[in-house]
Design a protein that fits this description.
Elements: H1 2-19, H2 25-41, H3 43-50, H4 56-67, H5 73-85, H6 91-105, E1 108-115, H7 121-135, E2 138-145, E3 152-157, E4 160-165, H8 166-181
Parallel strand pairs: 1-2
Antiparallel strand pairs: 1-3, 3-4
Helix pairs in contact: 1-5, 1-6, 2-3, 2-6, 4-5
């Protein structure tokens, strides 16, 4: 349910930005990420913003004082609607969906390659090129190291996961053997 709410609201904001002649999606995405960063870094702000005890009037006044002159009109009005509809708890998901919509508009995408050891630049560039060919988008690849995967690579792109890890293959083999024994 929360994912559906996040998608609906983020899509509405994205459409409003697309219809605007003065604002672009990339700029609004940066503003959203700035607010998201403030929520992560200032626990009192996060509690205030998400609190069902704090009234809409107080939240709107706070948002007006803090953001009105610093963010686009579309985002400002969007925040006001979030408060009116009591959807503040879905803000993180909305930022994620808005980012995906912006990346699709710009024909780019972010991916994460999880490996047991750090990838060198050549391997990372080669994998990014392969993923770009696969998706038809410009892929920006980052590398995360997780020794528990033993070997191979797991790639996360949006909601897609390509799991070519040794750990995954061992788990599949274990399942196959269990099926044969039973």
């Amino acid at each position: 349910m929360a994912a559906l709410v996040a998608k609906r609201y983020a899509t509405a904001l994205f459409q409003a930005v697309q219809e605007s002649e003065t604002t672009d999606a990339a700029a609004v995405l940066q503003e959203l990420k700035g607010i998201q960063q403030a929520i992560h870094e200032v626990p009192d702000f996060a509690r205030f913003f998400a609190s069902p005890v704090v009234g809409n009037r107080e939240k709107k006044q706070f948002i007006t004082e803090l953001f009105k002159e610093k963010i686009s009109q579309e985002l400002y009005h969007f925040l006001m609607i979030l408060v009116d509809k009591r959807r503040e708890a879905s803000f993180e998901g909305m930022v994620h969906v808005f980012e995906e919509l912006t990346e699709a508009l710009e024909n780019r995408m972010e991916a994460v390659a999880v490996t047991a050891v750090p990838m060198n630049e050549t391997a990372q560039a080669s994998m990014a090129a392969s993923l770009s060919t696969l998706t038809g988008r410009e892929v920006t690849l980052t590398n995360q190291v997780d020794a528990s995967i033993i070997g191979g690579v797991m790639v996360r792109m949006g909601d897609r996961v390509i799991d070519g890890t040794v750990r995954n293959r061992l788990n599949l083999l274990k399942e196959d053997l269990t099926q044969m024994i039973v």
